[in-house]
Design goal:
Blueprint (H helix, E strand, L loop, with lengths): L2 H19 L10 E2 L8 E2 L1 H17 L4 E4 L3 E3 L5 E9 L1 H5 L6 E8 L2 E9 L4 E5 L4 E6 L6 E5 L12 E4 L7 H13 L2 E4 L3 H8 L5 E7 L1 H4 L2 H7 L3 E4 L9 E6 L2 H12 L2
Parallel strand pairs: 3-5, 11-12, 11-13
Antiparallel strand pairs: 1-2, 3-4, 5-6, 6-7, 7-8, 8-9, 9-10, 13-15, 14-15
Length: about 270
């Protein structure tokens, strides 16, 4: 499969997941809680329907590929290519009727993220990248149809110049929360919410830092090639590989990344 055909296939995954999700968005949708006594973690019929649709397409097109999904777990994780699927990243926003959620579709090759796409079917936006370049497609600003643009992060020399995003400080472990607060206090503009959309806003040059904790691999794998393809950096808080999730920091400018990591480590 050449690059054009592959991009078309991933777009089809986004299409079928969006078709499964949109009938549920901003409706009287009930949400189950899968947290087992922890923080509220809703899972919906929409999540499951979207992941099933994507798994079927992948199984038909690439039967030798592995899949890691939020709703239905892992299969064939030792395969050279493994898909990472999060049908609704930002489920709390989804069930609240807020459009700051997205479907994450990532691909690992020999354990390394090589392609990622975030689909927001309500706003009809897609952010995607392969680590070397990243792009956005969405409604054209003038007239009908769609527009495609190259994504590039913006320059930000230090945390004091940065717009910082996190989904919620309450989602950061208590033992790490003060480290996060050091960065927040230093930042020019802290903002909450966004989930996967925050990383895409960073890739598009609107946000400078995203700091989160407790991420699963399927929460971040698709976003790494998007951020890196736009010129950004994604690591763990200690500068390690972000592929396995955990405590994650993303920055549009390596200088802001280094300055924020120093604040996180201070203590």
């Amino acid at each position: 499969m050449n690059a054009v055909d592959f991009e078309h296939f991933v777009a089809r995954l986004a299409d079928v997941s969006g078709e499964a999700l949109m009938p549920f968005f901003r409706t009287a949708l009930g949400a189950q809680d899968k947290s087992v006594g922890g923080a509220f973690d809703p899972v919906t019929e929409a999540d499951r329907a979207a992941e099933v649709a994507m798994r079927r397409l992948i199984g038909a097109q690439f039967p030798g590929h592995g899949i890691l999904g939020e709703e239905f777990g892992a299969q064939d994780m030792d395969a050279p290519y493994v898909w990472a699927l999060d049908p609704i990243d930002g489920t709390k926003s989804f069930v609240s009727g807020l459009p700051v959620w997205g479907t994450l579709i990532g691909l690992l090759h020999n354990g390394r993220p090589c392609y990622g796409l975030m689909n927001q079917p309500f706003t009809r936006e897609r952010f995607f990248g392969d680590g070397a370049a990243s792009h956005w497609t969405g409604p054209a600003h003038r007239g009908q149809g769609t527009e495609r643009r190259r994504l590039r992060t913006r320059a930000c020399a230090d945390v004091g110049e940065a717009t910082l995003m996190t989904t919620s400080p309450l989602l950061i472990g208590e033992d790490r929360r003060e480290a996060y607060r050091r960065v927040e206090r230093a930042a020019r503009l802290p903002r909450y919410g966004g989930d996967c959309y925050a990383y895409c806003a960073l890739a598009a040059g609107h946000v400078d830092l995203v700091i989160e904790d407790g991420l699963q691999p399927y929460d971040i794998i698709a976003l790494i090639p998007i951020v890196e393809g736009a010129g950004g950096v994604v690591t763990t808080w200690d500068g390690g590989d972000a592929t396995r999730g955990g405590a994650i920091i993303a920055a549009g400018d390596p200088r802001a990344h280094e300055a924020a990591m120093q604040l996180l480590a201070k203590g």
